[in-house]
Amino acid sequence: MAAVLLIGTAAVIAGGNILWTCDPAIAKQLFTLHTVQVPVDLIRFHDIWGPTVGSVEGQEWKNHRKIINYGFGPSTLPIVWEESIHQTETLIDRWARDEFVVKSPRTWMSRIALHVIAGIFFDTRMDWKDTESSNTNNDSYTSSLPNAILTIMLHLGVLFVTPRWLLGKLPFEPFQKTNKAFVDFTNYMLELRAKVLEKSDEVSTKRSRTMLESIVVAGSTNLSDPTVQPLSKESILGNIFFMMMAGHETAGNTLGFALLLLAVHPDSQNQVQQEVDDVLGERPKSDWSVETDYRALQKGYLGAVLTETLRLYHPVQFVWRTNVAETTVYDSTGDSHVVPANTLFCVNFAAAFSNPSTWPQAKISSAKRADLHFSRALDFNPTKWVHTREVTDNPTHWPFGQGGRTCPGKAMAQIEMVAVLATLLKNYSIELVITEDVLKACGDDHRIARERTRDDAIRRLEDDVEANLTIAMLKDLPIRLRGRFDETSP
To answer: What is a single molecular function from GO for this protein (predicted)?
Structure first.
């Protein structure tokens, strides 16, 4: 019979050989100990085309990781910065017209992330109309590359759980759409891969390459590095898809929650805007620099906002690890615990990053906290991160992971998110939408209506948050843009 043993903030179920933990000291060891690995059997559902960097271990993983790292070279980062600014400008054109209501910030931010990824991976500039239409200029495909990418991202669940042979045979629309997108995306990737290989010598000498070019060349030749082994075309496609999926989900989620938190905390939003004004001044966006402006904003209050968002609403709520041999771990009190081999560990990011003994809560009365449903949004405090986030060995906060499997796209994600918020908040503010019903119930008193809307948003940022493998709002929480310098704005 299974016995449950509590280890500080961890619990071991001896019979089931499972350990759940939110202890940051234990979590760090699980990311760095050589006896602890990723349980690849649990995540092979990602292997839609072939094995990827996320689903292999040992020497095979090292080979995949080296090839992936070629795609995240320094030459890519300025392109990320420029494309993020461009895509945000085009988004503002849509949001700022006719009191447009943004019902689901996460959906729009995920789309921006997808647009940026398309530019970095394929040198394809996605327009908003590209992902709202199935039109294509290529008669051999049923959808454009942007539309195929979007359809796949919107139907990942269908793609993960449905066998390939069955996907196109089911008569239901989601399955049919997903199958068409899958077939088209596969054909596009094979075609692009073939074009890169035809000019591999030329591509390998280019100073600036797309991520697809870098991964294809690195995965198909040894680049004078005998430790790199070529990958199959299935693994090339699989890794490209895996990087796209991870970047789309994490950046979109984080930006979506950041917008909501800034709408709920206007004082923090004002601090971001003041910093953006100080750093960027009145220079045109074409003069904004990833080398200087990004670094200043990332190290300042804007970067702190993103770090605090990742603490409170990390896009990945938990991760799995397993040990291949008996392992001794030490909890936060220094006590040691021997964990038997083949234990399945679950690291709970959400609990680790919100433990009040590690992260002091805002000074709010118990009654008020209870009235606002003990929402984590109450404890949003970016100030704690200013000038403290660059410590590489932070024992309590590791939003991009630790050890060898630290996210390879960390720099890309940070640049993208800083660029989006800086561009958005330079000339606009984000505000919650006050409904006519709320305004009427408050006797047309805008101040009371704003307070009531804010309190309701804080509650919903707890009650309406769904946490499975990733995190998302279950219901729409609408916002809108307001011109910062528009005196006629309410």
So the answer is: heme binding
Binding residues: 407
Q: What does the DSSP 8-state code read for residue 45?
A: G
Strand, coil or helix: what is 399? coil
* Residue 332: how many other CB atoms lie within 10 Å: 18
Number of other residues whose CB lies within 10 A of the CB of residue 235: 25
Q: Which residue ranges make up the annotated binding site for heme?
A: 407
Contact 462, 375 (CB under 8 A): yes
Domains by residue range for the chain, with CATH: 21-56+245-481 (1.10.630.10), 71-98+109-232 (no CATH)
CA atoms within 13 A on the CB side of 157: 5
Q: φ, ψ for residue 7 (rounded to 5)?
A: -120, 90
Between CA 90 and CA 326 the distance in angstroms is: 54
pLDDT tens digits, 145-194: 777 887 888 788 888 888 888 988 999 988 999 999 999 989 988 988 89
Residue 387 falls in which region: left (phi positive, over 0), alpha (psi -120 to 50) or beta: left
Q: In the numeric block, which tokens belong to residue 109?
A: 């931010």
Structure tokens at 13: 């179920």
How far, in Å, CA of 338 to CA of 346, rounded?
16
What the block records as the tokens of 302 is 């804007």
Cα dihedral sign, 369-370-371-372: positive
What does the pLDDT look like over 279-332, one tens digit per residue?
999 999 999 999 999 999 999 999 999 999 999 999 888 888 999 999 999 998
Q: Residue 179, Cβ neighbours under 10 Å: how many?
A: 21
Report residue 467: phi and psi, to 5°: -120, 100
